[in-house]
Amino acid sequence: VSVVTLLTDFGGRDTYVAQMKGAILAVASEVQLVDLTHDVPPQDVRSGAFHLMAAVTSFPPRTFHLAIVDPGVGTARRAIAIHTARGDYLVGPDNGLLSPAAQRLGGAVAVVELDKERYWRPTRSRTFHGRDIFAPVIGYLARGARLEEVGSPIADFASAIRFPEPKHVSGNLEGEVIHVDRFGNLVTNIPEAELPAKFSTRVRGQTIHGGAAPHYQAVPAGNLVALVGSMGLLEIAVRDGNAATHLGASIGDPVRLVSN
Amino acid sequence: VSVVTLLTDFGGRDTYVAQMKGAILAVASEVQLVDLTHDVPPQDVRSGAFHLMAAVTSFPPRTFHLAIVDPGVGTARRAIAIHTARGDYLVGPDNGLLSPAAQRLGGAVAVVELDKERYWRPTRSRTFHGRDIFAPVIGYLARGARLEEVGSPIADFASAIRFPEPKHVSGNLEGEVIHVDRFGNLVTNIPEAELPAKFSTRVRGQTIHGGAAPHYQAVPAGNLVALVGSMGLLEIAVRDGNAATHLGASIGDPVRLVSN
Amino acid sequence: VSVVTLLTDFGGRDTYVAQMKGAILAVASEVQLVDLTHDVPPQDVRSGAFHLMAAVTSFPPRTFHLAIVDPGVGTARRAIAIHTARGDYLVGPDNGLLSPAAQRLGGAVAVVELDKERYWRPTRSRTFHGRDIFAPVIGYLARGARLEEVGSPIADFASAIRFPEPKHVSGNLEGEVIHVDRFGNLVTNIPEAELPAKFSTRVRGQTIHGGAAPHYQAVPAGNLVALVGSMGLLEIAVRDGNAATHLGASIGDPVRLVSN
Fold this sequence. Notes:
The structure is a homotrimer. By secondary structure, chain A is of the alpha+beta class. The first copy, chain A, is built from 6 helices and 15 strands.
């Protein structure tokens, strides 16, 4: 059974996501459908790209990922499908949304522009390509269609979305917050491999000593703690609390690691 | 594999929806379950009817739709199942919730009242027929039971929910807003087929010139745009913005098309 | 097809739930996945235990339930799997979260501590055992692994979470509100079997006469009504309204049944 995931900015109040699933099931009724998230802030391609990148490696190889955050729907922006080095498929608009995930899955080995209308819904709207073009295409791919059947090869695709990389500045490592999760944990762009042997973490005027803790409960309740999170990135949390609220922190805030 | 969809006003905080799925799976463990939405405002049958109607045609024929917005649960209101001309099944309370969807699927070819207790859960509550009656019944239908097995034929069913139709008034077309979606787009009751050749759209004291645009980005960011949405109905949007907020608009607001 | 349910406090904004599903599907791609709820308040083990207990009996026997509300992740708290008398499996942290559900399913017939690393993900984080330990383990169980394969037998497990039982005090039955649902209905801890033949219900200074009503519409719109809800517990509702708001009520408020 092929696994097909969906990520959008459609929310849960309307039936847009369900309509996409209906269109997938009309083509491939036996797939395993999994929602990644549909609460990407409206039209926030960057946030969608982060969540897609965060999720894809937890799925088995040869998973089919459909991602739609598509403010340019109906314009000349291309619709694409990517085959990754790990064997996964990424389908969505060519606006950078898919790029970080493709990179995390080993890079693209083939990319096509979706221009074969016989793999689309017979009747199509101008505003909902998620349902009318992308959903049936990923259905056909999940059923076994080859990438070259559903589109024409292209040499490049948008990689406009890049997450900042931490920098070494006068002996310190300067990173930043790239995501705030539901618990108020601050996810930074600093990977475990780049952590100094011993360091303090500075964020929003506060200093967290002792490097990376083994778990949240290494500090007393209410205290700040730095630790390596589930993506392998340094995170800042408050034990039994909310670091974003506690610090007044948000995406983009600088995080500095001072070696000691 | 049969596709079974669920639409309720139960929200996601409680496990009511999951309990219904458990009751379906107890009867038919191999169905493909799809949530339409569970964020219908509590007891808002009209809103539920809109969302069900909006979603059903995106699914393949012979899909099984379970819809529960049921303020009259436990009273004498009937529980019904409808077989549509397109081959789909609609199951829910007989309070008008299913009527617009049935009409959009070609009309009802058979309707039964669910009165065969052997297709219900052995133990039943008085307040949760969604789990105790409707869920197992749709499970049996999805497994292949005939409509006449699960209920007794009835000649009519409630069609209390009707969405207003646009009217021609002194050369103009007078419609109204029937839905506001997550993006703040205003969905009107004016179908594409009734659009004049050339027209301006008037809503909340503003005028949108140029008829229906091909896509959202046909206007500069922040501007109002009228276009045909994914249901084939005229929608009013703000490019990269929220039309409902921008105009202070809500359901029921008049929308007038002036031919020019 | 095995049914695997998931209950967490992860919310829907992030992809944590999806990552767990990916890890399950990497082991067992053909399971039927069902979300119980992911809107448990962050780290509220008691609320999670309530929702899990409320949902499990609606599922067929031999369902696999994965529940993660785990403020102690990464510490010495044990990870466990329980086999219940009814034939279900419960997997999660040993912090009391699973205990009320186990009891409702007939009690535990076997319990193991999850200490067999070959059933875990090859690479593991310190903060996301839901994905890295619990998810693959439940995948293997759903595929048919025996409890003793995935862990070592233990004699006991945490049962710290208990819901209060109603008490008889000078001829009255004294209970309390243990849950407020989406509709504002107040779920009490008083089971149907303990209701007096005739009684009035007192809550927040109000008295509801006439014992338990057959359904919500037994009273005029806007009025308070007491009735037996879908869990077999006495509930207090407002017809076409919200009892929690109407009464200013919340979890822990006393509810007294006065026989008459």
